[in-house]
Design a protein that fits this description.
globular, alpha/beta, 7 strands
Length: 234
């Protein structure tokens, strides 16, 4: 059986993190004995880290990565590299806010047998019309700049073979903020064997997202410059 690393960035998720660990930990049983649940929680100002430490005795395959930068994107870069460097065969990324559904994971595990990556797409989003609008703009930009058409570029529900990740992670600096979007873009541009599967995306019920309209706008402005730089390298 393949070893699976389930990786999650976390930031100020004290209200959600224990339930998320309890919900997602059982999926490790579907994979090899060296599988892990790895959560990057650096920068949290609440009790997220302390809660995770308290759960380690009950969940021995739970690991924390507290050396990454606090932002979401750099945490993903660190998590993906950690999984690669520690011998994962498969890497699955989701977020720690409780908006995704573990019961949908087995279908992805089945689909990865015939693909190198399986990425979720959110036909219905529980996080509001503004977030859905931003995602549509992102997909439009990717189509205009890179000539790729994808249903969802940034969904936090993606299962990838480590060998595929290795091909592209070297293109990202440690502080890069949008690795999922660019990984999706690279996969589409280079015609990797990728499937998109619809997922449920629930409203956040606890805690507060660290992103707001101002932050999203600033990230978007920087992303345009990054997209142009990546385009030059294709």
């Amino acid at each position: 059986m393949s070893n699976l690393y389930v990786v999650m960035p976390a930031y100020n998720e004290a209200e959600n993190i224990e339930s998320v660990v309890r919900e997602w930990y059982p999926v490790l049983k579907l994979a090899g004995p060296d599988s892990r649940l790895v959560i990057a929680d650096s920068g949290s100002k609440d009790a997220t880290h302390e809660i995770l430490l308290s759960l380690k005795e009950e969940f021995p395959l739970l690991e924390t990565l507290d050396t990454a930068r606090p932002e979401h994107g750099p945490k993903l870069v660190a998590l993906y590299n950690y999984a690669i460097n520690n011998g994962a065969d498969l890497v699955f990324q989701t977020d720690s806010d409780g908006q995704t559904t573990p019961s949908e994971f087995p279908d992805f595990l089945e689909a990865i047998k015939d693909n190198d990556a399986v990425i979720g797409f959110r036909k219905v989003r529980g996080d509001g019309a503004s977030r859905a609008f931003v995602e549509k703009i992102v997909c439009l930009l990717l189509r205009v700049i890179f000539g790729v058409k994808v249903p969802d570029a940034n969904a936090p529900f993606r299962l990838m073979k480590t060998e595929l990740l290795k091909k592209y992670m070297g293109r990202f600096e440690a502080d890069y903020n949008l690795p999922n979007i660019m990984l999706t873009t690279f996969f589409a541009h280079y015609k990797e064997k990728v499937a998109f599967m619809e997922i449920t995306f629930k409203p956040r019920t606890k805690g507060t997202s660290s992103l707001n309209v101002k932050k999203i706008t600033l990230i978007g402005i920087k992303a345009l410059k990054d997209f142009r730089n990546f385009k030059k390298g294709l």
